[in-house]
Design brief:
The chain is α+β, with helices and mostly antiparallel strands. It is 25% helix and 45% strand. The protein has 4 helices and 8 strands, in the order βαββββαββααβ. It has helices at 7-16, 52-59, 91-105, 113-117, and strands at 2-4, 19-26, 29-36, 38-39, 43-48, 62-72, 75-88, 134-149. The longest helix is centred in the middle third of the chain and has 15 residues, at 91-105. It is globular.
C-alpha cells in the first residue's frame, strides 16, 4: 500500500542520499538529470559544468528535485522537493559548498582519480581563486514523500 512519509522521514531521506534528479523546464523542453548533492535542511547544493541543465535553470529557475531509496519494487521511499535554482557566485561560498560536496561524496568513490576529474580537491584551499565548476543551490519551498513497504 502506498503511504506518505512524515516530515522527519522526508528530511532523513534527503540527508542520507547522495544522488538525486533535477527536473527543469525551459522553452518547451523538459529535462531530468541525475546529480550528486548535499542537503542542509534548507537547500540542496550541487555542482555542474556548463551545459543544458544550467542553461535551462538560468532561464527558468523553478525546478523540482527527486530522490529515492529503492530496496525492490514493493519496498521503496521517494521524496520530491520544489524550489528555486540560485547560482552561487561568491568565491568563498563556492569553496565551502565544494568542500561540503567533497566531504559527502568522497566515501562513495572507489577510484581516487574520479575526484579530480569531477573538480573535487583534497583541501578547501586547493580550489584557488577560480573554479570552473558552476556551484548552485536549490532553495526548497515544498516537499512531499511517499513510500511502499510490503
Amino acid at each position: 500500500m502506498l503511504r506518505e512519509l512524515n516530515d522527519n522521514q522526508i528530511e532523513d531521506l534527503l540527508k542520507e542520499q547522495v544522488i538525486g534528479r533535477i527536473g527543469c523546464h525551459s522553452a518547451e523542453t523538459m529535462y531530468v538529470v541525475p546529480v550528486n548533492y548535499v542537503y542542509d535542511g534548507v537547500s540542496i547544493y550541487c555542482h555542474s559544468a556548463q551545459g543544458m541543465k544550467i542553461d535551462m535553470m538560468r532561464k527558468n529557475p523553478q525546478v523540482c528535485f527527486e530522490v529515492d531509496k529503492i530496496k525492490d519494487v514493493t519496498n521503496w521511499e521517494s521524496v520530491i522537493a520544489w524550489g528555486k535554482f540560485e547560482e552561487i557566485t561568491d568565491m568563498e561560498e563556492k569553496q565551502q559548498v565544494l568542500q561540503k560536496l567533497v566531504n559527502r561524496i568522497t566515501p562513495y568513490i572507489i577510484d581516487d582519480s574520479v575526484t579530480r576529474e569531477h573538480g573535487f580537491v583534497d583541501e578547501e584551499s586547493d580550489v584557488g581563486t577560480t573554479v570552473e565548476l558552476i556551484m548552485y543551490k536549490i532553495v526548497v519551498s515544498k516537499k512531499t514523500g511517499r513510500f511502499e513497504d510490503r
